[in-house]
Design a protein that fits this description.
The complex is a heterodimer.
Chain A (H helix, E strand, L loop, with lengths): L6 E5 L3 H12 L5 E6 L14 H4 L11 H6 L2 E5 L3 E5 L4 E4 L4 E3 L2 E4 L3 E3 L13 E2 L4 H13 L4 E5 L3 H12 L3 E5 L12 H13 L3 E3 L4 E7 L2 E6 L4 E4 L1 E4 L3 E3 L2 H5 L4 E2 L1 E3 L11 E3 L4 E5 L4 E3 L4 H15 L11 E6 L2 E7 L6 E8 L4 E8 L2 E8 L2 H12 L6 H5 L13
Parallel strand pairs in A: 1-2, 1-7, 2-3, 7-20, 9-16, 10-11, 10-16, 11-12, 19-21
Antiparallel strand pairs in A: 4-5, 5-6, 8-17, 13-14, 14-15, 18-19, 21-22, 23-24, 24-27, 25-26, 26-27
Helix pairs in contact in A: 1-8
Chain B lengths: L1 E6 L5 E6 L4 H7 L19 E4 L4 H4 L4 H7 L9 E3 L13 E4 L2
Parallel strand pairs in B: 1-5
Antiparallel strand pairs in B: 1-2, 3-4, 3-5
The chains are: A alpha/beta, B alpha+beta.
The structure holds flavin-adenine dinucleotide and FE2/S2 (inorganic) cluster.
Chain lengths: ~425, ~100
């Protein structure tokens, strides 16, 4: 009898899933590769959605790989198909249309989805949008072009919300950002960086409103009226929700995988079931360099975990061990982040040039460097990366002195 | 049509034609191994590193400051290094030979 072919099924065809499929081929996986996604589009880069895809009229979606590459690599790509269930005993997955696939190995790359905040009246509003898929952004573009007033509000001042604000402003909209906390980016960065972006947006004409807890919305003539709990109101005709995402864990939890803030995986990206892996935004994993568990929302993490999963599925036991990095582009500012700043005790701000500007913010826990936020400062980003990778002690006094260039001379002798 | 030749890590020579876009996009769309373009071409990931054949370097020119800094992330950087997402395809590039960085 012919031995049954091995199959690796990957659920989710975005940064994590697509890169995993190709990495499996690179690592010599001989069996079938089935890659499934609910999204009808050929898998695309997500970061441009809030940036160039939104604000450049002629921009197309940027595919992760051309369609021919899937064929050439013998990757069966199923789009516009949603997985409803994992049967981990029979080792199969079932689609909503009833189709069933058996797997030898299963990779969950299901990512994350926008959180819908509990705001009264939200369901009655037609022009409310989230920020995750190409479809979401295309809808925003359409609403924008159809709107006469071009007044938009974004609830939530995180990186993606702010990028969207910058893009809409560039397109000519009147934009208000409504942030519940006392500063934008409060959850993710220091007050220095928050203030920097707050000022940047203000200078560019974005109305940043902090301490605004939106509790209700309603249609009011042909506008949307937004009510905040400090009794302020805002009238707009496009409402965008940017309050963050939550991991897509439903099918995993039904399959009784261990879940925390995301699907719990070990250092090999393996879940609590030895045949199932989880990678990308959905994975709650251990970061060796920092010594704690995290769930990250970044291309870096999606791509690098995808390679680790592929290596392990192909039989090479390799641990995930990286320094996280991330970027955000808003107006003419490029922010690059390396490391995880959680638990910092000390911040050093280096304002190499306030005019341009060229700035870097260095986060330490006592004497240990944790992370660097670099504003238009790839040098700080690159040396920050090197110091973190090689666990190099940085001389804080030199770092504070902008006459000392950012390079190896910042090392403690 | 502009012709661009890539020399891959397996020493294979691949010549491609294009009219516009970036060299990184051309490489990714044609499966050139070793050029990943993870950040989509915004000079943030350094996964699109190529060495320009010295004969053509003048035609292509030097990297911008941010690009030079980002290239420092790669141990294989040399004086002919460029990030291919920062190379826009124009007639000037016709005939260039690029070696994909290891
Ligand atoms: C607008 C925007 C801007 C961003 N900008 C940046 C940036 O500048 N830099 C950066 O590093 N990161 C950025 N990110 C984050 C980055 O895009 C994510 O970290 C990355 O997409 C994670 O990849 P993933 O494959 O893990 O998950 P996702 O990209 O979320 O993909 C998961 C996929 O799984 C599919 N799926 C889920 N459940 C099922 C199911 N049951 N059946 C079938 N399919 C399913 C979904 O349809 C989805 O396509 C941005 C994200 C957004 C939305
Ligand atoms: S594609 Fe990321 S730096 Fe070129």
């Amino acid at each position: 009898m012919k031995k049954k072919e091995k199959t690796c099924v990957i659920i989710g065809a975005s940064h994590a899933g697509v890169n995993c499929a190709f990495a499996l081929r690179k690592e010599g996986w001989q069996g079938a590769v089935v890659l499934i996604d609910s999204d009808p589009e050929l898998p695309y880069h997500r970061p441009p959605l809030s940036k160039t895809y939104l604000n450049e009229p002629a921009a197309d979606l940027q595919s992760l790989k051309p369609l021919e590459s899937y064929h050439k690599n013998n990757i069966k790509l199923l789009l516009d198909k949603t997985v409803s269930k994992i049967d981990s005993l029979k080792r199969q997955i079932i689609l909503y249309d009833g189709t069933c696939f058996e797997y030898t190995k299963l990779v969950l790359a299901t990512g994350a989805k926008p959180i819908i905040p509990p705001i009264e009246g939200l369901k009655q509003i037609s022009k409310v949008f989230t920020l995750r898929t190409a479809g979401d952004i295309t809808s925003i573009k359409n609403a924008f072009f159809k709107s006469d007033k071009k007044k938009a509000a974004i609830i939530g001042g995180g990186y993606i919300g702010l990028e969207t604000a910058a893009s809409l402003k560039k397109m000519g909209a009147e934009v208000t950002v409504l942030e519940r906390e006392s500063r934008i980016l409060a959850r993710v960065t220091s007050s220095y960086i928050s203030n920097f972006f707050q000022e940047l947006h203000k200078r560019n004409g974005v109305d940043i409103q902090v301490g605004k807890n939106v509790f209700a919305v309603e249609n009011y003539n042909d506008t949307i009226r937004i009510y905040c709990d400090d009794a302020t109101e805002f009238d707009v005709d496009i409402l965008i929700l940017g309050v963050g995402v939550k991991p897509n864990c439903t099918i995993a939890s039904k399959a009784e995988l261990k879940i925390s803030d995301g699907i719990l995986v070990d250092e090999y990206t393996q879940t609590s079931n030895e045949h199932i892996y989880a990678i990308g935004d959905v994975s709650y994993h251990y970061n060796k360099n920092y010594g704690y568990n995290v769930r990250l929302e970044s291309v870096q993490n999606a791509v690098e975990q995808s390679k680790i999963a592929a290596l392990n599925i192909a039989g090479k036991k390799i641990k995930y061990d990286t320094i996280p990095w991330f970027w955000s582009d808003q107006f003419d500012i490029k922010l690059q982040i390396v490391g995880l700043a959680n638990g910092y005790t000390d911040v050093i701000v280096r304002e190499d040039d306030l005019e341009k500007p060229v700035i870097s913010v260095w986060y330490f826990k006592d004497e240990t460097l944790l992370a660097v936020d670099a504003i238009n400062n790839a040098k700080a980003y690159v040396f920050g990366t090197k110091f973190l990778k090689n666990k190099i002690r940085v001389d804080k006094a030199k770092l504070k002195d902008i006459s000392v260039p950012i390079n190896n001379s910042l090392e403690v002798n | 049509m502009v012709k661009i030749t890539f020399i891959t890590n397996d020493n294979e020579k691949v010549t491609l034609e294009a009219e516009s876009g970036s060299v990184m996009e051309l490489a990714v769309n044609n499966n050139i191994q070793g050029i990943d373009g993870d950040c989509g071409g915004v000079c943030s990931c350094a996964t699109c590193h190529v060495h320009v054949d010295p004969l053509f370097f003048d035609k292509i020119g030097e990297a911008t400051e941010i690009e030079k800094d980002m290239l420092e992330l790669d141990d294989n950087v040399n004086e002919y290094s460029r990030l291919s997402c920062q190379l826009q395809i124009t007639d000037d590039l016709d005939g260039v030979v690029l070696t994909v960085a290891k």
